[in-house]
Structure formats: structure tokens, C-alpha cells
Amino acid sequence: MSHDEPGNDSSGTTVRDMPVTPRDVHAPPPPEVIGPRRRLPLWDRIKFLLLFGGLWFFLVWSSMAENELVTFRDAWLERTQSSRWLIVVLALELVRQIHIFIAERWGAYNRFWIDRMFGRFERYTQRRFSSWTRYRIGRAFRWLIAIAVLAVVLGQIYDVSPLVGLFKAPTAFYAALPMLAQMVMILSIVILQFAALFWFLSKGGVDTYFPEDIKTRFEDVWGQDHVVERVKENIVFLENPEEIEKKGGYVPAGILLWGPPGTGKTLMAEAVAGETGKPYVFVDPGAFTNMFMGVGILKVKGLFRKLRKLALRYGGVIVFFDEADSLGNRGGSTGAVAGASIAGTSAPAPWDACHGFSFLAPQTQSSLFQAHMAPGVDPAGMGRHGFVMGGMNGGGGGMGTLQALLTELSGLKKPRGFVNRVVRRTLGMKPKPPPKYRMLVMMATNLPSALDEALLRPGRIDRIYRVGYPSKEGRKRTYEGYFAKVRHELTDAQIEHLATITPYATGASIKDLVNESLIVALRDDREVITYRDVLRAKVLKSVGPPEGVEYIERERHAVAVHEACHAVVSYLVQRGNVIDTATIQKGQDFLGFVQPIPIEERFTSWRTEYEADVMVSLASLVGERMFFGGDNSSGVSGDLQNATRLALAMEGLWGMGETIGSYAVSRAPQGAMAVNDGTDRALLDGPMGVRVERLLTELSEKTQELLTEHRSAVLAVAHALETHKTISGEDVIAAIEGTEGPVVDGRAYVDLRGDLEEYHSQALAAHEGREHQMTMPHARVADTPAPAPETGVPQPAPKASSED
User: Fold this and answer.
1) Regarding the domain delimited by 207-330+402-466, which CATH topology (the fold level of the hierarchy) does it fall under?
2) CA-to-CA distance for 590 and 391, rounded, in angstroms?
3) Which segment of 178-187, 222-231, 572-581 scores lowest on mean pLDDT?
4) Do residues 256 and 456 lie in contact, with contact meaning Cβ atoms separated by under 8 Å?
5) pTM of the predicted model, to two decimals?
6) To which H or E segment does residue 226 belong?
7) How far apart are CA 590 and CA 390, in angstroms?
8) Which residue of 52, 311, 415, 755 is most buried, as measured by CB atoms within 10 A?
9) How far from chain centre, in Å, is Cα 744?
């Protein structure tokens, strides 16, 4: 970018390099820089003198009108005796004007009053009230003065007290009107009742925070440095709009932050307001959802009237629409954001992976995009890391509101004021040019594809940023930030390990884990968090509290063998994953599960990796048949669904099968690929089903070879699960390799192989109904038990592990 292009100043410094510092626009300047007072305009100097002087002459005239024999001098003297309060007020205003006149010409005098006298009161009110509250109090005070003057005038007219005159005026005014005017007035009152009702309904849902209320800064936003750098550019343009306007550009008016929940979108908007020192207006997601039509439109109009006032008073304003997808759409989908959002979910976008969509002709892009956006079911069912491998499966806002919002976003430069827009034009006068309203509109959503295209066009929402899951360094920084707020004994190495084993953790989930760790420590009457507390909290978040039920012995052993088969195969074939947690602790909808986590942050997957996933899913069926004489439970149904979905996607979508063509081009096969309950056989009975079955059979044979070779490891892991219910991935490895883990001492299983086989024979006999007595052998465990960690990652519910 050259120096003459928008985004650079004349010295060649880019806007990204310009410092962004918080400032308080209402903080008084230091005493040493206070000079003479800025001179008042003529109208501000004389308006109160004219008001009180005119009121004085009106009272003198009323005395003369009551008695024609009273001279002006007599009326003057009479009012001097009866209305001394008005003389005192007029004298005080005259003294105030003399004080201002001296302060405008004498810096030391002005500095004395600002710093020593009025400054103390100003600082006190700033501590007690926000600047907007002080402004509203001042406005109310001015209204009271106007009402008091009117009451005095009416009291003199009706020869009653000022208060009685104020209440008597409407009755006298109505009686003086002709019949037709009275009917019009009654009709107007009825209309005003409806207007008042809708005005009342249009209130609420909008919270205003002023510069001194926002304490959040960019250093409080952890793990999203790349997005923060982009947002800083918009702050520079808001603070120094001339940097781009003087070179022919325009200030970006809107930002859309989209991404998964809990990644810090709302926090980033607060940080923008805190850094700029501008008011921050938070719009509730349901603010525009109303019972009556038209109320949402009134809310939008009222909101932007308030924004324009704040922008003129403070030099700018930040408005944040949370959950912007609630604003509604017109049935369409956005272009760029829709594709980006779908690419980030389980639905395969036509430009997935290498963005091969970009080199196609525009007509081809349009055709593919429309075909992709057609209603259909995700053929893959879920992404590679979107399911828990292992487990026994048991048995808006309105069109008018949106259009009003679009109009306001495009019409921010309309002239303000009724007098300026209507009266001046009626009199043939040219309206004053509209001011520049410095507004930054920020929106956040988890569903960008639900937003209307017109909302996201340039000029309304100019910049779209994805606030995704933080990287490992971002997670580490987030852990450090939240642990710094509590007392803990975690080392840097432990925090880094915690960041490694929690991929896809968000700021919200990390904060929740730290808070849960504190609760665990307090439950043990301690105020300092240890790493053991963190691990226990992770298990609690992953598995949940126990249900207080116990398996019968043979069922406990069957569930343990089921999960052990998943764990052993996962350990052997999934090189990109490590096991985080294995449990047979019963939950609400599962009897147990094995939870793997990726050890690296990657964005592509390979055929061998998907084959490994299929083998881990098939391990439950293959293992149960191997250990229980060809029998298997209904708990393998979920595993078979996962394996079939992956095999279908490999054969028909991802080019990992025997054919090259993609079944995604046809919506009918695509819908048939989502085999949820096994009743739709249209696809599986065809050539595709033959290839899928061949692939599954081949992988199940490989799985059986692995389980046969590592039979003792399966029984060792199953025994560890039966003993402890929940173990960590390190304990699984210890049981498989015969090493010492945090809870399980796997070295003991080297000598217990015969006992484990004998115990399994008893379980098999009990399963077949030949025996009912089972004696589980005892293994030596570590002295200091520590529960298994949990990733803290928002993931789908663990694939259930229960019997139908």
C-alpha cells in the first residue's frame, strides 16, 4: 500500500501502527494547562438576562393592567416590594455573567475557580454520577426553570397563586376553543393514548454504559490477538476519521464478529468501548421481539435517535447487537459468511480444504453454491473430531424491524431536528448540513448464515471477522489470566500442559474450569488451587456428578470390556489423538465412554486417519464378540452408526474409496446417506452399500487382529475401569504398557494376567447363565490417587453406552 492510499498517513505510518490508548473525554485538564475560559456566544450570554428581565417587565405590566390609575413608577415600586425573589435571581445572573466575563480574560482567575472552587464539586459529581446522568439532571433543572416561569405568568394572568394558575391553564385553554377544535383535541388525546402505549412498549432491551463505566481493555481479551489487531484499525478510524476521509475514503461503520459461543465476541466489543472512551450501547437479543407489529420499528428508530445524540455529545458511540441472527432475514443466505460458517461445521462446503472453489468461473461458482445451499442432510454426520469414540448406546425480529434497521444503517447522515428539516424548508431556508455521526456498529452471532445479505453489504457491515477457538498459546494466556485472579500452586509447565490437552477450549470454558477448580479446593477447606483440584474439576465437567447407581457385577465387567476395547484400539491406531478420559461411571444417557483429544491443531484429515476412527468405532462390536463367545450387546448401535457414516462419506464424498465421483451432487443420495436408524436401505442395498460393507469388513478384521494380539491389555484396562470407574489417559497407557500412572500402577498387571483371564472366564460363565459368583482380583494402585483430566472442550454429548 502506498502512502497516498487510504489507511496510511502522510508520513507512511499505517493505521495499524498508530497507538490506541484509552482516554476519558470528560476528565478535567491538569491545572497547569488551564487558561482563560472559552468565550460564550452572544445568545448564551444574554438568554437568562432576557428571560428574567422579560418576566420582570411582564409582572410590572400586569400590575398596570389591573389598575389603569397605577403609573409605571408605582407598578415598578410595587413589584420591587412583592417580587424581591425575582430581583435576587436577576442579580445573581448578572454576577454570574460578570464572573464569566473576567474568567474569559484572566487565566489565573479562571484556573482558581476551576481547580479550587468548582473543581472539587465537579470531581465529586463525577465520582457519584456519570456524565450522562449529570447532563440529564441539568436538562431537568432547565425544564423546572421554564415551568416555574410559566407558572408565575399564569398566576398573574388568572390572579391566583402560580401553582393554581399552572393547573388552571389547560381548562381555560380548552374552554376558549370552538366546538370543532375541541373535538379535534379529544381525538388527538385518544391518538396520544395509543402513541403512549406503543412508546411504553418500545422501551427496554437497550442498556447504555458511559466511558467511566467500562473497565475492559484489549489486554483483557486473551487468545484472540489476530482479531484484536484487525479491530484496532476500526478504532483508529473512529478516533481519527480524517486519516482516511481526507484521502477520499470513508470510515468503516460496522463490524460482524462471528464464531462459536464463548470465544469472547461480547468481551471484545466491551474492550473497544473501553479503549476509545466512547459510550457503549448494548442491545439485548430479544429487544426487537414484540407482541404487536410496529413496536420493533419504533425501537429501532428510538435506538438510533439515542445513538445520534450520544455520538454528537461524546464524539462517537459504540453500539453492540448481541445474537444478531435474531434480527431475522428474508429467507436468503449470505454469500461469504454462509460459506465460511458451513465450512467450519460438519457440512462439507464446495470450496472446502484448498478453496478450490475460487478458480472456477463465476457462473459455475453460482451454480455450485446454490446446489450446496439446497436443503439436505449432512452425509458425514459429523467431523473427524466431532464424536466421542467409544460408548455403549442405550435403547426473530420481523421484516419491518429488519428493514427499519437497514434504513437507519444507511441513513446516518440525515439532517437532525424538526426545525432544521421542516421549519427551515417551509420558510424557504436551506437546512443546515447534517453532522457526521461517528458510530461503530458491532454485531455478534453464532449463525452468520442466518443474517440477511443486505445487512452485510459494504456501507452497513463493512468488516467480518471470525472469532474462533483460541490457539494453544491463546489458551495458555487465557489460563494464566484466569489463574492470576485466584490463589494457586500450578507451575508454568502444568499450565502449558493444561493448554495442550484442551483443544478447542474457549475463554468461557476455561473460566468455568478455573472457577470449578476453586470450588473443589474450597470444598476441601483450602483456598489455594492445586493441579489435583484442576484435574478433579475437569473430570466433574466431563463426566458429571455420579448418579449413585451401581452395576451388577457381570454388567459392570461387560461395560468395562467394551470401553477397554475402544481405549486399546485408540491407543494403537490413532496417532494424532491421545486418550483424555475413560469411564464406566453411569451418566444420564450413557453407561461409559472413552474421550480422545487431538494432540495437534490440524485442519485436514487423511484416509488412514478416518480408517483409524472407523476401527476404534468397530472395536466395541469386534471386542464384545471376541470376549463373549460371539455375542454382543445393543450398546454397539451408536458405534456402528458412526462407523457407517464415516465409511459412506469416505466412499461417496471424500474420494477415499474405490470410486472417484462424489454423491454430494445429488440431493437424494445425500439425504439417504444420513442413515440414522438403519431403516433406510435405499443406499446401502446398492453398489455403494456393497463397497461400504466391504470397507467395514476389512477394517473390522484388522481390529480383531489388534484385539487378539493385545488381549491382556484389554483385560488390564477393563480391570482398572472396574476398580476406579474413571481413569485418565495416562492411566490407560500405564495399564497397557505395564508402567506406573497417576492412579493405576500398571506394573501389577504383568503378574495378574492369569487372574484377569480367570476373572473374565467367571464373567463369561455368569453371562451365559452357568455361574453367578465373580471374584475380581486386586491390583496395587498408586499411593496418591488423582482423577482423570477433562478437556474442557465443548463437544457433542458422549456416545451413550447403555443397553437397549
Assistant:
1) Rossmann fold (3.40.50)
2) 7
3) 178-187
4) yes
5) 0.60
6) helix 225-239
7) 11
8) 311
9) 41
**Cα torsion through 193, 195, 200, 204, rounded to 10:** 180
pLDDT at 624: 93
pLDDT tens digits along 570-589: 999 988 788 888 888 776 66
Helix ranges (DSSP H) in 414-552: 418, 424-426, 472-483, 492-500, 507-523, 531-543
Q: Is 169 helix (H, G, I), strand (E, B) or coil?
A: helix
Strands 280-283, 317-321: pairing kind: parallel
pLDDT at residue 731 above 50?
A: yes
Secondary-structure percent of the chain, ordered helix, strand, coil, rounded to 5: 55, 5, 35
- The dihedral region occupied by 12, where left means phi > 0, alpha psi between -120 and 50, and beta the remainder, is left
Contact 457, 463 (CB under 8 A): no
**194 three-state secondary structure:** helix
Note the CATH number of domain 472-543: 1.10.8.60
Q: How far apart are CA 747 and CA 739, in angstroms?
A: 5
What is the rounded CA–CA span in Å between residue 644 and residue 382? 12
- 3-state SS track over 697-731: HHHHHHHHHHHHHCHHHHHHHHHHHHHHCEEEHHH
- Whether 244 contacts 237, CB under 8 Å: yes
3-state secondary structure of 311: helix
The DSSP 8-state label assigned to residue 552 in this structure reads: -
Length of the chain in terms of residues written: 804
Are 498 and 534 contacting, i.e. CB atoms less than 8 angstroms apart? yes
Number of H helices, E strands in the chain: 30, 9
Closest CA to 543 of 499, 581, 516, 517: 581
Q: Which residues pair with 594 in a beta bridge?
A: 582
Asked if 766 and 553 count as a contact pair (C-beta separation under 8 A), the reply is yes
CB 626 within 8 A of CB 707: yes
- Report yes or no: 565 and 707 within 8 Å, Cβ to Cβ: yes
pLDDT in tens, 606-656: 889 889 999 999 999 999 999 998 999 988 888 898 898 888 888 888 888
Residue 8 has pLDDT above 50, yes or no: no
* Residue boundaries of the structural domains of the chain: 31-202, 207-330+402-466, 472-543, 553-767
Contacts of 268 (CB under 8 A, 6+ apart): 221, 224, 227, 228, 231, 257, 467
Per-residue DSSP letter, 40: P
3-class secondary structure, 557: helix
Cell of 144: 423546572
Where residue 755 falls among pLDDT bands split at 50, 70, 90?
confident
Cα atoms in the 13 Å half-sphere on the side-chain side of 200: 6
Cβ burial, residue 19 (10 Å; 0-12/13-18/19+): exposed
Rounded mean pLDDT of 64-80?
A: 76
Give residue for cell 437479543: 285
> Does 484 score more than 80 pLDDT?
yes
